[in-house]
Structure formats: C-alpha cells, structure tokens
Amino acid sequence: MRTRNCKFESGPPFAPLRSRSAPKRGIVVVAILVVFSVSLLLFGLWSRSVVREHRSLSNQQFRIQAERLAEAGIERGIAARKANADYAEETWPVPAAQLDKTHAAQVRIRVTSTSNAGNIRYEATSEFPVGALHRAQITKSVEIPASDPMKKS
Length: 153
Description:
- By secondary structure, this protein is an alpha+beta fold.
- It has one domain.
- The protein has one helix and four strands.
- It has one helix at 15-83; strands at residues 89-94, 105-113, 119-128, 136-145.
- A four-stranded antiparallel beta sheet has the order 1-2-3-4.
- A hairpin with a 7-residue loop joins strand 3 and strand 4 (136-145).
C-alpha cells in the first residue's frame, strides 16, 4: 500500500480567493444600503404628500359644510323674522348628531335694517367645526325688501 504525502496549505494559494470575494461583499452591502435609503426617502415623500392631500380634502369638506350652514342660517333668519318682527340676532348651535356625527357647528345670524328704506339685511356667519384649530368660517348676506321676506335678491 502506498501512501502519498500531500500537504494542504492554507497560506498564499488561498489568500487571493479571500481577497477577491471580500470587496464584492462590501459592494453588495453598500448597494443594499443605498437602495434601502432611497426607498425610505421615496416612502417619506409619498406619505408626506398623502397627509397633505388628506388635509386639503378635509379643509375643502369644512368649507363646503360651512357654506351650506351659512345658507341655512340665512333661511332660518328669514323664517324667524317672518314669524317674529322683533327678531334681530341669534347664535344657532348645530350639534354633531345633525351633521357628520363628529363635528359640531355654530351659525351666528343677524338681521338689520339697511340704509335703503324698506330693505332688511340678513347675515349668517357659520363656523365648522366650531372651536377647532383647523376650521372654516363663511359669511353670507342677502338684502331683501321688508315687504317680501321670502324673495332673495
């Protein structure tokens, strides 16, 4: 039986293999970090635009609701003045249950005589949601001849 004497060296012949793979792994790690950072940046920009769009839509909803409430305040003032000639001013609280069930509103109604004889000015200022940091406030007014309280001009 014959035996061979083989020496396995872990020295210089294997060193070039290690030195070639180490920089490749470093480049891959750097590339992954760059892709991850760019992805986080893009996600941050996207989420920021989503929040901005949500805020814009809620402001638009608040403005539309406040406008409708001001119009209702004008109609309420006309009806109240028709029922009571001494009606001049009112603060009309509108509970959240009558609106969107989350936000309450307030409408200030004023009825005044104008400088033109025989005309009455109806003014309604609505605030929706009442007392909130971000809210809409709309004022609408109309002048109507005192003889015809249901006709808007």
